[in-house]
Design a protein that fits this description.
Elements lengths: L13 E3 L16 H18 L4 E5 L5 H11 L5 E9 L7 H4 L2 H23 L6 E10 L14 H16 L6 E2 L11 E3 L5 E3 L1 H9 L6 E3 L7 E4 L4 E4 L1 E8 L4 E8 L6 E6 L7 E7 L18 E7 L3 E6 L3 E7 L1
Parallel strand pairs: 1-2, 2-3, 3-4, 4-5
Antiparallel strand pairs: 6-7, 8-11, 9-10, 11-12, 12-17, 13-16, 14-15, 14-17
Pfam family, one: Alpha-L-AF_C
Protein name: Alpha-L-arabinofuranosidase C-terminal domain-containing protein
InterPro entries: Alpha-L-AF_C, GH, Glyco_hydro_b
């Protein structure tokens, strides 16, 4: 650190001990969860002797409850978060649009089940330390994203998937306080750049930009009454409309994040707000003309964000475009 100009420690507060150590492609691959847990204890012990205040993330698995039980049972007294990664590999899952945008429901339910398992394991083995989830890798993954660069250019349907996961994460913010998208530039990207200096902002990027408007605030309960369709892949009913909401006390404003899954039909929604009387409504959305629309170097603005502003009285009816991600800011 000092050799390269960092005279003082960087004061890093959050550390991940290993990454996907259940995978043979990883440096530090572990044969099983017990080995991983005991090695996590060794690392955590040495690290906390230097700085007891740091927070630690240990390796979990999204589909292996036995692994997660062993990690909490053995290392639970040393860690603060269990890392979970989920990718939807579109050659195996989400093969149709309707199934792809149903998967966030399964992701949300799986994260809930993992947290329940963490709590049950803590109770059974007397682990006093609070442990929550770090959902620190998630995305769609297309067959064209091959090593070494893993490049893909995603479309509107992937933006719908992304918004639905973000809605789920807002609803789960108490048990999943850390969530990071994988990745950012060129590798499974939100942003694609080339050697000529050109840049493409994918529909997934535009979705993230909408959601980052509310980087702090209180998640409040929001419910949508909606028609449903059947996902043949997951064998569940899927509502066309999904919603989450964040209230900012500083701004005295409420943001509704509403996704219309319907491929072909717009949705007319009536907003009813209790305990809050807004006067202004700003509606921003991303949809494109087709679920397969994408931004490219040749046409970088084919999909873009649109904005409208309205007055608000006691209620308001808003039309949502087909296959659209919407943020409605009430203030």
């Amino acid at each position: 650190r000092k050799r390269y100009g960092g005279r003082e420690p960087y004061n890093v507060r959050l550390w991940g001990i290993g990454n996907e150590l259940w995978g043979r492609w990883q440096v530090g691959f572990c044969r099983d969860a017990e080995e991983c847990a005991w090695r996590t204890v060794q690392f955590a012990d040495h690290m906390k002797r230097v700085d007891p205040s740091i927070k630690l993330v240990a390796v979990g698995v999204d589909y292996d409850p036995e692994w997660n039980i062993d990690m909490v049972r053995i290392a639970g007294g040393y860690i603060d978060y269990l890392s979970i990664h989920t990718y939807i590999s579109v050659n195996r899952q989400g093969k149709t649009y309707e199934d792809l945008v149903a998967w966030p429901i399964a992701i949300e339910e799986n994260l809930k089940h993992i947290y329940i398992l963490i709590e049950q394991t803590r109770a059974r083995y007397g682990v006093k330390r609070d442990i929550r989830i770090a959902f620190d890798e998630w995305n769609v993954w297309y067959p064209e994203a091959q090593p070494p660069y893993l490049t893909q250019i995603t479309s509107v349907k992937d933006a719908i998937f992304t918004a639905l996961v973000l809605n789920a994460l807002q609803r789960l913010s108490k048990i999943v306080p850390i969530a990071t998208f994988a990745q950012t530039v060129n590798v499974l990207p939100l942003i694609v750049v080339d050697d000529e200096g050109r840049m493409v902002l994918t529909p997934q990027y535009l979705t993230f930009k909408l959601y980052t408007e509310a980087y702090e605030g209180d998640v409040v309960e929001a419910k949508a009454l909606s028609d449903v369709y059947r996902s043949s892949e997951l064998d569940i009913n899927v509502p066309y409309i999904d919603v989450s909401a964040v209230y900012s006390r500083d701004e005295k404003g409420l943001r509704l994040y509403i996704v219309n899954r319907n491929r072909d039909e717009e949705a007319e929604i009536e907003l009813k707000i209790k305990g809050f009387t807004p006067t202004t409504l700003i509606h921003k959305w991303v949809s494109g003309e087709d679920i397969n629309d994408k931004n490219t170097f040749e046409n970088p603005d084919k999909v873009k964000t649109i904005e409208r502003k309205y007055s608000f009285t006691t209620s308001k009816t808003i039309k949502l475009s087909p296959h659209s991600i919407n943020i409605i800011h009430l203030s």
